[in-house]
Amino acid sequence: MAEAMTSNQTGFKVLRALVVAAITFVILWLGLRFLSNPVAFQNFPPTVSKLIQALIAVVLGVVGIWALFYAGNTILEALPSRATEILRPYLFVLPAVAVVGLYLIYPTVDTVATSFTEVPEDAGPFFNYQEAFTNPDVLTALRNNFIWLLVAPLVSVVIGLIFAGLVDRVRLESLAKSFVFMPLAISFVGAAVIWKFVYAWKPAGQPQIGLLNAFWMWAGGFLVDWGWIEQVEPIPWLQIPFWTTFPLIGIMIWLQVGFAMVVLSAAIKGVPTELTEAARIDGATERQIFFKITVPSIWGALLTVYTTIAIAVLKVFDIVFVTTGGNLDTSVVAVRMYQEMFRYRNFGQATTMAVILLVAVIPIMVVNIRNLRRQGVGA
Amino acid sequence: MTVVADPDSVPAEIIEKPRRRQKRAGDERAKASWLVRAMVLLIVVMWTLPTLGLLVNSFRTSAESSSTGWWTSLFNPLSTEWTLDNYANVLTSGGLFEALINSLIVTIPATVIPITLAAFAAYGFAWLRFKGRSLLFGIIVALLVVPLQLSLVPLLQIYQGAGLTGSFVGIWLAHTGFGLPLAVFLLYGFISLLPKDLFESAYIDGATPFTAFTRLVLPLSVPALASFAIFQFLWVWNDFLVALVFLGTSSDVAVLTIELASIVGSRGEAYHLLTAAAFVSMLIPLIVFVSLQRYFVRGLLAGSVKG
């Protein structure tokens, strides 16, 4: 009797698992088919059909991922209990590992391989690298990336540190921080538009509509009055070959200072009060305390902020692509890679650009892994 | 990956942070000299004016926008002809309304899917024992800083073969892949520190790991989930490169950043339209950011390297 019931229950569990899994897959499959079929929405006015499509897509994506896990678990628990126990961890971990494998690990390996194999028949494996390092456009991009890397992280960290140190001592601290922090919510493309407007240029004689040129004409007026310069001309900030790189770097700095400031401000608040109090009693000035005690104690945070911004800067794409398109000697490696991919369809050169970025990031990666090891996370 | 101030305290940063200096801060604030205040004010103004100019100019007419600076309208608000035409223009004929919906279609699942996968994985790495556990986790953490450019060419080839380019499913999965290392890392830091007794009593009550996860771990991890959600939401919403490569520029799928960039290309000097379009693209992230800033800061402090 008891035996019959157990086998009945097992049979029921297996059946239920199969039904749940089947229903999940069928609904997801039909939903995705429906979504990718534009004809399905033609009977509605465009706005309505767009909204319906959005609703279906969002529900499918959000509910679908949970349904898949639920179906997976149902199948898992219908298995013999030993198998369940052995396989269970993989239900939790494997989906993420599989996605990471497909989207990051395999492509990275393949990219490195392609950069050596996608070469003309009679050329050696280093053909793409020889091409790259003898191509003046690539060399320009490399030089510009180097300039970005020298200027942007350092200036961002310095401004962020100064602001974090000063804002600690004023009223309305959190409000002031919010304003500096806000650009973090803005996209690179949005920031590029904001600054294109700041850098806007009108010929001399016309009123300037760009903030920077208006300021420059106003300030330059004084310089002329004092006889420091002959005359003042509006500057076409985004149209000067090579030098335009620096206004572009300015956009990046504007975006990153908020990040540096928040992290450094938290670090500064973590410096033990006893240290700074003791120094103050000994007669140290605020400036001495800041540079002799605070800065050395937050060295780790400074390093992490610097490397984080450095990685972002190495990959910079949107700002350059949207403002100059890489013209005027302002190209960078990521823009160059995009052009090789889509303009020239040269995947050999494109992957070579990607490998150059990887090589540039590796030292930072090593520092980060060491840092994690020290904290005892992971392996 | 950036662990600030105290290297052992990833989750402590995500959980509530004690404000140990609050009492003293008051005394010190009195000492802030006018020079300090002036420098703070200067930086705040420099970081605010560009966005303010964008907002003001988006409400000005084409004629005024192209002939005078936006600040003239701010100084003479009554003699300025304020208008909403720029917004009407970019939302309808500019195609930004459709792009706004597309951005939502892309962003919501591309935020929920990686969080779900990462929460399951983080729980598995933290509380279940299996072969290859530390190796797999080490690999995921190492991938935190690999530039996503390394993935573009092979993925594009796979996508073109599978017909996934220009599809929402394709970009959800792409953003999931690129966001997962950070998500797993952040959530692991939080979930691994949940008290062990919690699970033992749940198992005694007959819970399976799956129910323990959905009923216990997820509700308790809401602060960490929220931190990553905001992070990923802003990242996907503001992304340009991934959308450009995998989703493309045709108007039925193009997201806001793509449409904005195309307006820059086609109407680069029409600043009344450009500023309105840019503001449309910034509105939702700014709302999310202002209302959930606390969670966002926690996420930033717990980890901020992304490939």
The quaternary structure here is: heterodimer
Number of helices of chain B: 17
Helix content of chain B: over 70%
Distance between the termini of chain B: 12 Å
Give the beta-strand count of chain A: 0
> How many helical elements of chain A?
15
Shape of chain B: globular
Helix vs. strand class of chain A: mainly alpha
Structural class of chain B, by secondary structure, is mainly alpha
- Largest interface, C-beta within 8 A: A-B, 131 and 138 residues
Determine the strand fraction of chain B and express it as a percent band.
Answer: under 5%
Listing every helix as H and every strand as E from the N terminus to the C terminus, the arrangement of chain B reads HHHHHHHHHHHHHHHHH
Beta-strand proportion of chain A: under 5%
Main beta-sheet strand count, sense and barrel state of chain A? none
Write down the Rg of chain A.
29 Å
Mean pLDDT of chain A: 88
Please state the CA-atom Rg of chain B, rounded to the nearest Å.
24 Å
Q: Any low-confidence stretches of chain B, pLDDT <50, length ≥5?
A: 1-30
Give, in order, the helices and strands of chain A: HHHHHHHHHHHHHHH
Mean pLDDT of chain B: 86
Provide structural commentary.
The complex is a heterodimer of chains A (379) and B (307). Chain A is mainly α. Chain A is 75% helix and 0% strand. Chain A has 15 helices and no strands. Chain A has helices at 2-35, 46-78, 81-117, 127-134, 136-167, 173-181, 188-198, 211-225, 245-269, 273-281, 286-297, 299-314, 318-323, 333-342, 347-375. Chain A is extended, with a radius of gyration of 29 Å. Chain A starts with a helix and ends with a helix. The relative contact order of chain A is 0.09. Chain B contains 17 helices and no strands. Helix content of chain B is 73%, strand content 0%. Mean pLDDT of chain B is 86; it is low at 1-30. The longest helix of chain B has 32 residues, at 96-127. The relative contact order of chain B is 0.15. Chain B is mainly α and 307 residues long. Chains A and B meet through helix 2, helix 3, helix 5, helix 6 and helix 7 of A and helix 2, helix 3, helix 4, helix 7 and helix 8 of B.
